[in-house]
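subagent[fold] <- orchestrator: predict structure for attached chain, return tokens only, no commentary.
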Amino acid sequence: MPINKTTGYGQIRISDNAIASIAGSAVIECYGVVGVTPKNPIKDGFNDLLKKENYSKGVIVRNKNGILDIDLFIIVCYGVKISEVVNEAQKRVKYNLEKTLNMDINSVNVYVEGIKVVD
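subagent[fold] -> orchestrator:
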């Protein structure tokens, strides 16, 4: 469900794909995150890393009365402390979305779908 806002200049409509792209771009910048993976691995491929234009396939956005819940599906780097990577990802995604959209974010749920050795 897209977000609708009204300003003095007119109406703004923000799609779920745009929100997912913002969240995907924020999480990929976190230390220890190798990439975003599809939320539907059977349809989109098992543990394939998504390119920047497809981040929305690895993010689920749920909108309840103007409050967002975000689910992220990521692959982390081998040898890092997973709890720290996930904590940083949650903080960064929440901050970026709240700053960009000027909305409340209820939760950012991170699902680690795999671990990858990076050269």
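orchestrator: received. Logging for downstream: The mean pLDDT is 86. The longest helix spans residues 82-101.
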